[in-house]
Amino acid sequence: MRAVIRTISSLDDIPAQTWDTCANPPSRPYNPFVSHAFLHALEMSASAVAETGWYGCHIILEDDQSNVLGVMPSYLKSHSRGEYVFDYGWAEAYERAGGRYYPKLQVSVPFSPVSGPRFLIPDCANQQERKLLLAEGALAACTKLQASSAHITFVPEADWALMGRHGWLRRTDTQFHWHNRDFQSFDDFVSALSSRKRKNIVRERRHAHGHGLKIERLTGVELKEEHWDAFFTFYLETGSRKWGTPYLTRSFFSMISEALADHIMLVMVSRDGRYIAGALNLMGGDTLFGRNWGSIEHLDCLHFEVCYYQAIEFAIERRLSVIEAGAQGPHKLARGYLPVTTHSLHYLADPRLARAVEDYLDHERDAVATDGRLLSSHSPFRNGQTSGDN
User: What number is the average pLDDT over the span 358-380?
Assistant: First the structure.
C-alpha cells in the first residue's frame, strides 16, 4: 500500500463524517468515546488541550490521493495524569538516570479508562495492514516530536496480540464488568447470585432507598442544563477529593449532551426537590459505560445504588450485553461485576529503559493473571461463573 502518515493538532482539521467512518464502521458496535463528537468536545471545552498537558497529535493515514484510510486519537503529553495506566514509576526511574520522559505520545481517550478501538479503520479487506501502518506512524511521530515513548491504552486483546508480535511491549490490568446473561429483570439477575450476595444487595438497595430519595434515569431530550449544573457540582466535589484538580470543564458536559444525548444515561438523585448525587453513563452499541459519579451528601449505600444497581436495571431494560464500570474496585465483585483483563501497548525509544520495562511487564502480567484467578474464585454467582473475559 502506498500510504502517507500525517498528524493534526485538532479534530477541527478533519471532517466529523470522515473520522466517524473510521471510528465507528457498521461492522463494530458503536463506541461513543472514539467518536468525533466526544473527542472534539474534550478539545472545545478546554478539557484536553495543550494548556492541560494534552497537545493534540492525532495520527492520520492517507493514500496518495489524500483519502483517509485510518486514524488514531493521539496526544503529546507533558505528564501522566488522566490515563489510568500508570507509568509514574517508569518516568521517575528514567529521569533519575538522567533521561527525559516527557513529552510522550499517548494514544487514548483522555480521562476514560474504557476499552475500545484505538487503531480506527473503516470496513475494508486490509485492516491488519492499516493497523500496522498506523503503529509505524506513532513511532515516526515519537521520533519527529522527540518523545520518549508511545503508549496505546485500553486496546482490544486482538490488537494487543498483533502489536506484541511486532515489537510493542504488552501490559495488562484488571477491571470489573457486568455481563447480561439474558436476564429479564433485576430480580432475575439477583436470583443468579449466591444467597449471601443476594441478601447483601437487597439490604444495600433497601438502605439506599430508605433515605427518602427520588432516583431518575435521564437520556435524550430529558437531559437539561439544570441537570448538568447539579452534576458538575457533584463531579467537582468528588474529583477534588480523588485527584486534587478535576479534569473536565463544565462546558464539556453541555457539549456531549448536545451531540450525544441519545448515548447518555444520567442517573440523578434528589431529596426534597434538591439534587444531591448523580452518575454519568454513556451507551455504546452493546455496552453501558459507567464514567463519573459524585454526591454532596454521603449516604449509606447510595454509591452502590446509583453507580451499579441502576446501571444493571437499565442494561437489562435496554438489552445491553455489558456494563464497564471503570477502573479498579474489587468491591464491584460482590455486586455481580466480574474480573476482566484490560490491555495496553508501550514503545520506549531508549533501549535501556525498554529492557528494564519489558522485564517488569513480564512479571506484572504474571501477577495480574494470578490476581485475576484469585478474584475469580470469589465469584458471587451460584453456577460458578468466574470471569467476564471471553
Answer: 96
pLDDT per residue as tens digits for the range 329-358: 889 999 999 999 999 999 999 999 999 999
Q: Are 266 and 217 in contact (CB under 8 A)?
A: yes
**Mean pLDDT throughout 263-270?**
98
Rg (CA), the chain: 21
Given a cut of 50, whether residue 390 has pLDDT beyond it is: no
Tell me the average pLDDT across 283-310: 95
pTM here?
Answer: 0.95
pLDDT digits (tens, 9 = 90+) for 186-222: 999 999 999 999 999 999 999 999 889 999 999 999 9
Does residue 99 surpass a pLDDT of 80?
yes
Residues 6+ apart with CB under 8 A from 196: none
What homologous superfamily does CATH list for 3-173+341-376?
Gcn5-related N-acetyltransferase (GNAT) (3.40.630.30)
Same fold, 3-173+341-376 and 181-320: yes
Which sequence spans correspond to the domains of the chain?
A: 3-173+341-376, 181-320
Residues in the chain: 390
133 and 3 Cβ atoms separated by less than 8 Å: yes
Question: What residues does 293 pair with on adjacent strands?
Answer: 279
DSSP for 230-275 reads HHHHHHHHHHHHHTSS-S--HHHHHHHHHHHGGGEEEEEEEETTEE
Residues 349 and 169: beta-carbon distance below 8 Å: no
Nine-digit cell string for 297: 451528601
**What burial class does residue 356 get, using C-beta atoms within 10 Å of its C-beta: 0-12 exposed, 13-18 middle, 19+ buried?**
middle
Which cell numbers hold the place of 170? Answer: 504488552
Identify the CATH number of the domain defined by range 181-320.
3.40.630.30
Q: Which residues contact 18 (CB under 8 A, 6 or more apart)?
A: 68
